[in-house]
Specification:
347 residues; alpha/beta; 2-enoyl-CoA Hydratase, Chain A, domain 1; 10 helices
């Protein structure tokens, strides 16, 4: 008999370990400590509203704000810390309407950016206190329509009324009196319905500002002038409006106390740590995002919106799409001396 050699064992390659999904920290105890210090300095209650660079003002924020205000009850005075790059102006109006039902005298604290729809939100305050790095901005809107042009990444491009008007003015200026109708050429690149929607959106921005200012400013002519300036008085949507210019256009704006400014910076650093990038790349086409986007907080309660979704890159469409989206609002509070984080249901 011949001895047969044992067949070599096939060793299966070990699968690469799946990246760990990042979990951002909930720093409730630290933020509450700073909020208590700020309230002691101010001599009144503080409400905070913070957006990460990927967060924005949206409709669901109104429900989160309502949750905080209900825990506070009705107040004669309230200071409102805002740090945001903007979002939806209609949500700003709803938030101002809610605030004015709970608060007699509202003061906005702006140590950093308070731009676009956040500027609209600040208009609802009786007074705006601005730090050395604070700025408001223009409120003209850029509309992303279902029929908007597509960029190189296959995403819809935002179109603003100001941009369209500038194209038409330049056309008429260069071509003179014998200029043909510029819209005939413009329609080849921008759909007529997009142009109509942009004009409607511009009118909406002005209307929102007038309505928000009317909650405390009874001079409607002045409210209209401020709104017109913010909507069409600047050549750039991101033009920074600092304290001096805010006063010049008619806003009740004053310098922010240096001690309060420093404490708000400390609070912003803690929120920035909570809102840090928290994503895991599984491969070049798949990842998971767990970042905290928006935080609303008062003494005793913190409400935050946290992403919890997968991202997949569709090569054939050349764009990223979200999958398995379990993002939700959460609330952090102390229960029997222990930090508890639970889902804050918004429907």
């Amino acid at each position: 008999m011949f001895n047969r050699k044992p067949e070599p064992k096939v060793v299966e390659p070990k699968a690469a370990p799946k990246p760990t999904v990042q979990a951002p920290p909930i720093l409730y105890e630290r933020t509450q400590k700073v909020i208590a210090q700020i309230e002691s300095e101010l001599g009144e209650r503080l409400l905070t509203y913070w957006n990460s660079p990927n967060g924005s003002i949206c409709g669901n924020d109104v429900i989160g704000l309502y949750g905080i205000l209900r825990s506070m009850g009705k107040l004669e005075k309230l200071s409102f810390f805002i740090k945001s790059d903007g979002g939806y102006g209609q949500a700003s109006l709803r938030m101002v309407n809610l605030l004015r039902q709970f608060v007699g005298q509202l003061t906005v604290l702006a140590p950093l950016e308070c731009a676009s729809a956040a500027t609209m939100l600040a208009l609802g305050a009786d007074k705006i206190l601005m730090g050395p790095l604070a700025h408001l901005s223009a409120v003209d809107t850029s509309l992303t329509h279902d029929l908007s042009p597509i960029d190189r990444d296959n995403n819809r491009v935002g179109v603003s009324q100001d941009e369209l008007q500038r194209v038409v003015r330049l056309w008429q200026k260069e071509a003179g009196k014998e200029a043909s109708n510029p819209f005939a050429s413009l329609f080849q690149f921008v759909h007529p319905l997009v142009i109509g929607a942009a004009d409607r959106s511009s009118a909406l921005s002005t209307k929102l500002c007038v309505e928000i200012l009317s909650y405390h400013l009874k001079d409607l002519k002045k409210a209209q002038e401020i709104s017109d300036t913010l909507n069409s008085g600047y050549p750039s949507h991101s033009y920074p409006i600092m304290l001096q210019e805010a006063q010049r256009i008619g806003l009740n704006a004053e310098p922010l106390n240096e001690n309060i400014n420093q404490l708000l910076f400390e609070l912003n650093e803690i929120y920035s740590e909570m809102g840090q990038r928290a994503s895991a790349d599984f491969d070049e086409r798949n990842s998971h995002d767990n970042s905290i986007l928006n935080i609303i907080e008062g003494r005793g309660l913190q409400i935050l919106f946290q992403n919890d979704k997968d991202w997949h890159y569709r090569t054939e469409e050349r764009r990223w799409v979200s999958l398995n989206d379990r993002s939700c609002w959460r609330k952090a509070e102390m229960v029997n001396g222990k930090l508890t984080v639970s889902i804050f249901h918004v429907r």
